Amino acid sequence: MTRRTEWPDGAGFGSAAGDTENRSRRNRGAGPEADGTARDSGGSLPSRAGSGPPRTPEEQARAICLRLLTGSPRTRRQLADALRERGIPDEAAEEVLARFEDVGLIDDAAFAEAWVESRHHGRGLARRALARELRTKGVDSALIDEAVGRLDAEQEESTARELVDRKLRTTRGLDRDKRLRRLAGMLARKGYPEGLALRVVRRALEEEGEDPDLLDHHLPDA
């Protein structure tokens, strides 16, 4: 396992983009906030009368990407989608995105690794659920496989057991069938395979004092 990365659902390595933006503003002598220019709802920065020529599409794309990356890490596809929604021409968007990748402000591999660490430790998500989330964010399949592969089966099972242990006390007093459905269903929603979920639930209930012979009527011997 890699070293655990503290990244609670959205915060993380975006600070690098903020540092770059601040340095760029100092080099220019002033930024959009310094001259009082307000951002419009689409993320572009309209010029005021007498403040200079209109910003180029590349400049607008750069400002949009820096602002988004300062707020939270983003994948290349997320940024590309944001630029497209704001009307940035594809050629200008591609030029800016390629440059951001070159300097390390866009790094889908680092994004995927940090996402897996954060969402597994913070939400208890299994590899299958993590891979599904990364796909929706446009991360390449090879990078997804590499990131979720760092989460080994032993760690995944240990986390599943922790989730079941926390849920057990809230199911006490329910009939056996309902407890089993709730515990196994909770793990299934977090992406744990059926065999693993049933094995973990069975072991937890046996340790709590459930009769193994009675469990045989409800759970397979996983």
TrEMBL record:
Any coiled-coil regions, as ranges: none
Residue stretches making up the RecX first three-helical domain: 61-99
Subcellular location: Cytoplasm
Chain residue ranges for the region called Disordered: 1-62
InterPro entries: RecX_HTH_1st (IPR053926), RecX_HTH_2nd (IPR053924), RecX_HTH_3rd (IPR053925), Regulatory_RecX (IPR003783), WH-like_DNA-bd_sf (IPR036388)
HAMAP family xrefs: RecX
Protein name as catalogued: Regulatory protein RecX
Species the sequence originates in: Streptomyces lunalinharesii
Gene: recX
